[in-house]
């Protein structure tokens, strides 16, 4: 029984260990491009910063609205007096102020509640609220802009990772082919059918392909780390799946331009900034205009802190404030605000032209990448056939070593060009989507 129990315990521990090991493998995540974009939009620090800016702008908007509401404040004071020489002669005199009833008392408690309500401010409060509302919308557009940039950078990093992975595969294939060719040459050398020079040259070629493979593997590791950093996740137990696909699309330049001019967050931001600048001109010009406010307060006084015997008064006032001379400060501030408005208008024109240029560049890059793929599509298959033929002919002694290596180089070059064309196409497509300004 003891032996059986011991075996059961050891078996259970072993199964648990194996399950944990398998479980750790099962918990490793495999991200597709869609998963990468979704994760980046949740974890990327730039997105989180943009979200906090929206919260701040919303709070600023609510703060500006408080200008319409009354301001209520309360105060409490305690006064302790000590009679000085000669004060007794004045003991029969009382203060003419209704709020100072207890003359020359040793102690005085005073509680006061004050309310102030703006009535007319020449549009200052309205313009401040309008600016806060426009700034909130501006921040929303900033968030949308940041979201588009994060999506583009994520796709770019993902496609770079896939490209690097493909380049490792191409380099590994070139290394394997070169290594196999070296073995054939060494066999021929043993049979006296090739020279030591051919063997030496094949070894140099193998060393070069090995160097290219090492470089490709290093680029792959860097590309993976870059993608992990954008996603803001831990690299452990993470892998990525996907391919550089070619899905031809019909894209119209006029449609792209129309979408960009209607949807780009930068254009919406500059238009909001123009409205903010116009509002600032009105707010600044009202700096030397009259204001009307109503204020009132109620006051309780007593010589002792007790529940009875408090003397209560209240006062209400309507106050008109008319600035007479401010040293031309308002005039100069208004000139600055108008100048800033003109700068925004000029920046708007430059931004529109810049966006049009960006859209055209993205469209042309897309067309170039599309044509490049179609031009290189059949080269890989042809190059593989040529290499197979060259290797067979070399074995039969009908082709030189140089011709075989040329065929090897042609295959590697064709695979590299085609893979690069696929990468350029997918990047160009992502650039077109970003240039349109439509966030999916």
Structural class: alpha+beta
* CATH class category name of one domain: Mainly Alpha
**Which fold name fills CATH's third level, the topology of one domain?**
Outer membrane efflux proteins (OEP)
CATH homologous superfamily title of one domain: Outer membrane efflux proteins (OEP)
Query: Please, what is the average pLDDT?
Result: 83
Percentage of helical residues? 55-70%
Biggest sheet statistics: 4 strands, antiparallel
Summarize the structure.
The protein is of the alpha+beta class and 440 residues long. Helices cover 67% and strands 12% of the residues.
Model description:
This protein is an alpha+beta fold. The chain has a domain of 293 residues: Outer membrane efflux proteins (OEP), CATH 1.20.1600. It is built from ten helices and six strands; from the N terminus they run H-E-H-H-E-E-H-H-E-H-H-E-E-H-H-H. The strands form two sheets. It has a four-stranded antiparallel beta sheet, with no helix packed on it. Strands 1-4 form a two-stranded parallel sheet. Helix 2 packs across helix 4, helix 4 packs antiparallel against helix 7 and helix 8 packs antiparallel against helix 10. About 9% of the residues have low confidence.
């Amino acid at each position: 029984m003891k032996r059986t129990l011991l075996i059961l315990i050891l078996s259970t521990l072993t199964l648990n260990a194996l399950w944990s090991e398998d479980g750790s493998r099962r918990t490793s995540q495999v991200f597709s491009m869609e998963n990468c974009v979704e994760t980046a939009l949740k974890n990327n620090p730039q997105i989180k910063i943009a979200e906090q800016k929206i919260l701040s702008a919303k709070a600023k908007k609510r703060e500006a609205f408080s200008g319409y509401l009354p301001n209520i404040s309360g105060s409490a004071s305690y006064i302790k007096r000590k009679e000085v020489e000669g004060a007794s002669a004045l003991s029969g005199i009382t203060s003419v102020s209704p709020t100072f009833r207890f003359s020359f008392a040793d102690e005085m408690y005073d509680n006061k509640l004050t309310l102030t309500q703006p009535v007319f401010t020449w549009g200052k409060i309205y313009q401040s609220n309008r600016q806060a509302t426009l700034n909130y919308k501006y921040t929303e557009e900033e968030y949308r802009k940041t979201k588009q940039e994060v999506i583009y950078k994520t796709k770019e990093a993902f496609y770079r990772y896939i490209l690097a992975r493909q380049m490792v595969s191409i380099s590994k294939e070139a290394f394997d082919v070169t290594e196999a060719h070296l073995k054939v040459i060494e066999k021929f050398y043993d049979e006296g059918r090739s020279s030591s020079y051919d063997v030496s040259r094949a070894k140099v070629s193998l060393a070069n392909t090995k160097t290219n493979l090492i470089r490709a593997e290093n680029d792959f590791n860097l590309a993976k780390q870059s993608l992990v950093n954008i996603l803001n996740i831990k690299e452990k137990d993470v892998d990525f799946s996907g391919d550089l696909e070619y899905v031809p699309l019909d894209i119209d330049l006029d449609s792209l331009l129309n979408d960009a001019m209607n949807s780009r967050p930068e254009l919406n931001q500059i238009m909001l900034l123009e409205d903010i600048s116009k509002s600032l001109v009105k707010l600044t010009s009202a700096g030397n205009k009259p204001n009307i406010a109503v204020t009132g307060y109620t006051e309780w006084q007593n010589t002792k802190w007790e529940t009875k015997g408090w003397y209560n008064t209240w006062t209400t006032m309507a106050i008109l404030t008319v600035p007479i001379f401010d040293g031309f400060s308002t005039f100069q501030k208004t000139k600055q605000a108008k100048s800033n408005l003109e700068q925004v208008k000029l920046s708007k024109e430059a931004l529109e032209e810049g966006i049009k240029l960006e859209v055209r560049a993205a469209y042309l890059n897309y067309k170039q990448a599309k044509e490049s793929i179609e031009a290189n599509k059949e080269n890989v298959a042809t190059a593989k056939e040529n290499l197979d033929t060259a290797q067979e002919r070399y074995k039969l002694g009908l082709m030189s070593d140089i011709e075989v290596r040329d065929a090897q180089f042609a295959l590697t070059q064709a695979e590299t060009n085609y893979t690069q064309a696929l990468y350029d196409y997918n990047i160009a497509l992502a650039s077109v989507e970003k240039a349109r300004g439509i966030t999916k």
